[in-house]
From TrEMBL, chain A:
Domain of life assignment: Bacteria
Key word S-adenosyl-L-methionine present: yes
Function noted in UniProt: Probably acts as a heme chaperone, transferring heme to an unknown acceptor. Binds one molecule of heme per monomer, possibly covalently. Binds 1 [4Fe-4S] cluster. The cluster is coordinated with 3 cysteines and an exchangeable S-adenosyl-L-methionine.
GO cellular component: cytoplasm
NCBIfam families listed in its UniProt record: hemN_rel
InterPro entries associated with the record: Aldolase_TIM, Coproporphyrinogen-III_oxidase, Elp3/MiaA/NifB-like_rSAM, HemN_C, HemW-like, rSAM, rSAM_sf
Protein's name in the database: Heme chaperone HemW
Taxon lineage: Bacteria, Bacillati, Actinomycetota, Actinomycetes, Bifidobacteriales
PROSITE patterns for this protein: RADICAL_SAM
Family: Belongs to the anaerobic coproporphyrinogen-III oxidase family. HemW subfamily.
Subcellular location field: Cytoplasm
GO molecular function annotation: 4 iron, 4 sulfur cluster binding; coproporphyrinogen oxidase activity; metal ion binding
Native organism: Bifidobacterium canis
Gene Ontology process terms (BP): porphyrin-containing compound biosynthetic process
Automatic annotation (TrEMBL), chain B:
Occurrences of domain Tr-type G (ranges): 14-195
Species name: Bifidobacterium canis
UniProtKB keywords: Cell membrane, Elongation factor, GTP-binding, Hydrolase, Membrane, Nucleotide-binding, Protein biosynthesis
Keyword Cell membrane: yes
EC number, UniProt record: 3.6.5.n1
Listed GO MF terms: GTP binding; GTPase activity; ribosome binding; translation elongation factor activity
Membrane topology of this protein: Peripheral membrane protein
Compositionally skewed regions (Basic and acidic residues) per UniProt: 609-626
One cellular component (GO) term of this entry: plasma membrane
Transmembrane residue ranges: none
Name this protein carries in UniProt: Elongation factor 4
Length: 417, 626
């Protein structure tokens, strides 16, 4: 039996691009070669069929999907029926666990009661709203156009329809004061949602905001300010009964995003849509990658399966929707590239993902899975420096250890040698 | 190539003219030398390489000649073939002693001055050296083909300096060849023939010695008395060694073995010695069978004036650094070094140099020819430090500075000659004053240019003096200096502490008045250069146990990727791997990780205290002292 299996569907369209955004998303209605918003669900379903066929041909027999997540871009830019169609195709190809978690990200302006109702009828269980801030000038800096009142209304409707509801916040925008941030967190808490994500604004150089900072038009986010805001968020959210379960995520117990936990637990997932990543913990009899590159599309040959020959695979779709559409039309799994993850790299990933979680990083399980060991010396010194706590064989990042998570990861990686 | 009539070993002294060319960097010495070779017919035009005499890459790029060579050039004047010995001299102040040996091998000197620039300080100093050696001076203005040439003006200046008529100053262009024939004729007419004793015991002056990877040590000599034969055992009078020479010969323009070298001739000897310290510039070679009674005058060992530590950035390169220095030493008797260990920088060598340029050339050759990545510590001059107990220490490295109370510190001084256009007199005075210089005299070379004489601590000159002189005079001033005794001074050792630990590489011996600015600048620089870490890092400057400056690197509060979902994992892992590789280039100072780049940047000179924060902090530190 393989690990839980998840499906991610990327919807690469937005009405407009936000200044800080570096996601793979496009504002055009039609990008050519059939890659249009109107035709998108059809293409995504086609990709699912290709992927499913590829899995079967390579001896990868996934269990029914435990979670499905529609992200973007803005998935709710598509008609609700399209989202449901795509979900139906997942169900048809892989089946669905009984209590599967089905999430879509939503722009507060692009949904209403009818839209949400259609999703609920179609089997969706969870809505994640991009709220970002409750403060108008911060929203403007972030290029967010939504009306803050729509967040309140749509969260209420979603709850009434029986959805689990999450909102996303961003802190550290230029000009955002500590008071602004407290106000946003407070507003999010008062929505009564069971899940809140809070992300430090991260500037990528090639974004509009990256260029504005490089040219000195606006101030760069400040690490100390962001650290203070993280501490504020953690204190306020815990007080409100939302427990951190990952560095940037807080939830009422039992309402954690199971889909996202899957990423950090390194499960299998199929990524559908331009630029989406897929991950398979075990693939077998991998042929020479050079040869595969030479063929049209990526094919990873596999037939017999012995554990010795297994290794992990991560692959990513062609990012541009038009090129992606052409690949689909040529009956290819539209991967742009892939990497075979070595045992050593796999160990690194388990560490760097695991230590982000409140459930912590299990030293024994790690040794069992990878054959490697983290030295006690390093664990003891991390404990002594107040970066982690130890609970039996688990180590869990402290508040300080969450803020200095990369440093903790580095130390753990170092101790592998 | 035309057949030469005068054969080495059989040329009458009356037909020999030995001369050198004294010129500032870039005044066109090599171009003129090349023209001479070409005109004499010994280098066919098609084989003319640009600047034939400068063979090392660095020399070509920097336009300076480090190692001189001696070429035998035939020249026919009035129907008679003469043999000219053209000796190339190093142009820079660091090689002053070598210049003086080259001059001792000549009877005449061509003073070559750029007609667009006029005479420069180092040229002037070498000119005085030539006059001291009783050399006949032939003044020449070069680059007369350039539109910006002002030959009349500079001819006046030169005439004033050497006491000739402006019309006596020859005008040439190395580029077009104009006037070079006249110059050669003039050399034959004006430069006296050598006056050694052809029948006496053999005495030859070593005026240069180079290591050639194919031939071993090539020693350049000027026969003064007697003759040396190719099968004769040779004796080095100062070093005291005896050799069977492998070859003796002349250069014309390639090495040509000969059977003998006679009085007045210039040539080379290949001794088979292993390194140039066995064949020292200034030493006298004589015949082992019939040795001369007294050596030629003027021999001395080159004395290092500037010391610095050289450390490989990657400590694994230490053996390679040792090997590279050993190889350079073959070629450079003035280079001295011994192993040194630094807490901060690991294993390296404490090296002694003749001066800053010498130091620069050595580190550049180490990196260029040997591919070494080096950190060099701040240059240090030798101090004589008397501790309270009366014990005297020679301190060439701040780490040797004695602890506890100091009775007296004596530092080396130099006499500095600075030539500058008169509008920069004020700027030069300010600069010299800031560097603890005292002015003695000032002379007008012409209505436009002055020569200023200062006495300045060598330590002040070796740091960033020359760069500042250039920048404050828009590049017009030139500098020459030579040793000029010593003086007692109020010097202190400033230590830099990171997290309470003294970092030896950053310690410096400075004048008490400058201790604050050094401390403030260094701590500020390091605050910028050292990345924030998970704890607060105090950076302090101290004299003994007294803290004179302090900066703090605040603790790192956030080092985490906010989002790490399915599409971020590969990128994140690669980033971590890259960071990990970067960590390997970090030095651990206690618990503090310091990037190599921080050492390199902190130890680089030339940054002055101009921003307001620095000035305020220096003032505050000085007040707290008062």
């Amino acid at each position: 039996m393989r690990q839980p299996f998840e499906v991610y569907v990327h919807v690469p369209f937005c009405i407009r691009r936000c200044g800080y955004c570096d996601f793979n998303t496009y504002t055009a209605l039609d990008l050519g070669e059939g890659a249009s918003r109107a035709n998108y669900a059809t293409l995504a379903c086609l990709e699912m069929r290709h992927v499913h066929a590829w899995q079967e041909a390579h001896g990868i027999h996934e269990p029914p999907a435990s979670t499905v997540f529609f992200g973007g871009g803005t998935p709710t830019i598509l008609p609700a029926e399209d989202l449901v169609t795509m979900l139906d195709t997942v169900r048809e190809l892989w089946g669905m666990e009984e209590h599967a978690e089905i999430t879509t990200e939503a722009n507060p302006d692009s949904v209403d009661r009818e839209y949400l109702h259609t999703l609920r009828q179609g089997g969706f269980t969870r809505i994640s709203f991009g709220m970002q801030s409750s403060v108008p000038h911060v929203l403007r800096t972030l290029d967010r156009t939504h009306d803050p009142r729509n967040v309140i209304d749509n969260v209420r409707i979603a709850k009434e329809l029986g959805f689990e509801v999450s909102v996303d916040l961003i802190y550290g925008a230029p000009g955002e004061s500590l008071a602004d941030w407290c106000a946003s967190v407070q507003t999010a808490i008062e929505l009564g949602v069971d899940h809140i994500s809070a992300y430090a604004l991260t500037i990528e150089p090639h974004t509009k905001m990256g260029r504005q900072i490089a040219s000195g038009q606006i101030a760069a986010p400040n690490d100390d300010d962001e650290a203070a805001k993280y501490e504020i968020a953690d204190a306020m959210l815990s007080e409100a009964g939302l427990q951190w379960y990952e560095i940037s995520n807080w939830a009422a117990p039992g309402h954690e995003s199971r889909h996202n936990l899957g990423y950090w637990r390194n499960v299998d997932w199929a990524g559908i849509g331009p630029g989406a990543h897929s991950h398979y913990g075990e693939v077998f009899n991998v042929a020479d990658p050079e040869q595969q590159d030479a063929k049209a599309g990526v094919e990873i040959a596999a037939s017999a399966s012995t554990a010795e020959q297994a290794c992990s695979l991560r692959a990513w779709d062609i990012p541009h929707p038009r090129v992606w559409a052409v690949a689909l039309a040529n009956h290819r799994v539209p991967w742009q590239g892939y990497e075979l993850i070595s045992a050593a790299e796999n160990a690194e990933e388990i560490i760097m993902l695991g230590i982000r979680l409140h459930e912590g990083f299990d030293l024994d399980a790690f040794t069992e899975r990878t054959g490697r060991r983290i030295t006690n010396y390093v664990v003891d010194s991390l404990v002594e420096e107040g970066l982690v706590t130890r609970d039996g064989e688990r180590i869990i990042a402290t508040l300080r250890g969450r803020l200095l998570n990369d440093l903790v990861i580095e130390r753990l990686l170092d101790s592998l040698e | 190539m035309s057949q030469q009539h005068n054969q080495p070993g059989f040329t009458d002294q009356s037909l020999i003219r030995n001369f050198c060319i004294i010129a500032h960097i870039d005044h066109g010495k090599s171009t003129v030398a090349d023209r001479i070779l070409q005109l004499s017919g010994i280098v066919p035009e098609r084989e003319m390489r640009d600047r034939f005499l400068d063979r090392m890459d660095i020399e070509q790029e920097r336009g300076i000649t480090i190692k001189s060579q001696a070429v035998r050039v035939p020249w026919t004047y009035d129907g008679q073939e003469y043999t000219l010995g053209m000796i190339d001299t190093p142009g820079h102040v660091d090689f002053n002693y070598e210049v003086s040996r080259a001059l001792a091998a000549c009877e005449g000197a061509v003073l070559l001055v750029d007609a667009t620039q006029g005479i420069e300080a180092q040229t002037l100093s070498n000119l005085y050296l030539a006059i001291d050696h009783d050399l006949t001076i032939i003044p020449v203005l070069n680059k007369i083909d350039l539109p910006s040439a002002e030959p009349d003006k500079h001819a006046d200046e030169i005439a004033g300096l050497i006491g000739c008529e402006p019309s006596d100053v020859l005008r040439v262009s190395g580029k077009t060849g104009e006037g070079v024939k006249e110059l050669l004729d003039r050399i034959v007419v004006d430069v006296p023939a050598p006056k050694g004793d052809p029948k006496g015991d053999a005495r030859a002056l070593i005026f240069d010695s180079v290591y050639d990877s194919y031939r071993g040590i090539v020693t350049y000599i000027r026969m003064v008395d007697g003759e040396l034969r190719s099968r004769e055992k040779l004796h080095m009078m100062s070093v005291g060694t005896t050799y069977d020479p492998i070859e003796i010969g002349v250069i014309s323009p390639d090495m040509m073995p000969t059977r003998a070298l006679g009085a007045g001739e210039v040539g080379y000897v290949i001794t088979g010695a292993k390194d140039v310290s066995q064949s020292k510039v200034g030493d006298t070679i004589t015949s082992a069978a019939n040795p001369a009674k007294t050596p030629l005058p003027g021999y001395r060992d080159p004395q290092p004036m500037v010391y610095a530590g050289l450390f490989p950035i990657d400590n694994a390169q230490f053996p390679e650094l040792r090997e590279a220095l050993d190889k350079l030493k073959l070629n450079d008797a003035a280079l001295v070094y011994e192993p040194e260990t630094s807490v901060a920088l690991g294993f390296g060598f404490r090296c002694g140099f003749l001066g800053l340029l010498h130091m620069e050339i050595v580190s550049e050759r180490l990196s260029r020819e040997f591919g070494l990545d080096l950190i060099s510590t701040a240059p240090n001059v030798p101090y004589e430090v008397t501790a309270e107990d009366g014990k005297v220490h020679i301190v060439t490295n701040p780490s040797e500075f004695p602890e506890g109370k100091i009775k007296k510190i004596v530092e080396p001084m130099v006499a500095a000659d600075i030539i500058t256009p008169k509008e920069f007199i004020g700027a030069v005075m300010d600069l010299c004053q800031e560097h603890r210089g005292t002015m003695s005299t000032m002379e007008y070379l012409s209505t436009e240019r002055v020569e200023m004489h200062y006495r300045i601590p060598l330590a002040e000159v070796v740091f960033d003096f020359f760069d500042q002189l250039k920048s404050r005079t828009k590049g017009y001033a030139s500098l020459d200096y030579h040793e000029d005794g010593e003086q007692a001074a109020d010097l202190v050792k400033v230590d830099i502490l990171i997290q309470g630990e003294r970092i030896d590489a950053f310690s410096a011996i400075v004048h008490r008045d400058k201790a604050y600015s050094y401390g403030v600048m260094m701590t500020k620089k390091l605050r910028e250069l050292i990345p924030r870490q998970q704890f607060e890092i105090p950076i302090q400057a101290a004299i003994g146990s007294r803290i004179i400056a302090r900066e703090t690197i605040r603790a790192l509060r956030k080092d985490v990727l906010a989002k790490c979902y399915g599409g971020d994992i590969t990128r994140k892992r690669k980033l971590l791997e890259k960071q990990k590789a970067g960590k390997k280039r970090m030095k651990m100072l206690g618990h503090v990780e310091v990037p190599q780049e921080a050492f390199v940047a902190a130890l680089s000179t030339g940054e002055s205290a101009n921003d307001r924060d620095t000035k305020d902090k220096i003032r505050a530190a000085q007040k707290s002292e008062g």
